[in-house]
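Record type: monomer structure entry
Structure origin: computed from sequence
Chain ID: A
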Amino acid sequence: MKNYLICYYILQQCMFETLEDDLTILLSKMSPELTDDGRPADEKIYKRWKNTIDADTMSIDEITKAIAHRLELTAYDFKKTIKLLKSGDMEYYLYQAKERAEEFLSEYEITEE
């Protein structure tokens, strides 16, 4: 769940930079904040994204490339977000995403699967 949340929070930060409508749609489907138990409502989305990255072993570059690749596999238009992921300085995004993921897991008392 932690890696899923990190992807979610990185994309959430990208949304504020790119303002892509399709990213807003994806994030609403990915959101774990819309349920009472902290679990994503859309199980298919969760299964697709949960193993996209391994934040403990992958470099920042590998993480952002993996997220960009996952976005490329969808039917949505994420040109701006993919460009940002591939060319932007993602170190701060990753740091923030890891912090938020840890807080979320703690708040909902979710343990790793």
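Annotation 1: The first helix runs from residue 2 to 18.
Annotation 2: The mean pLDDT is 94.
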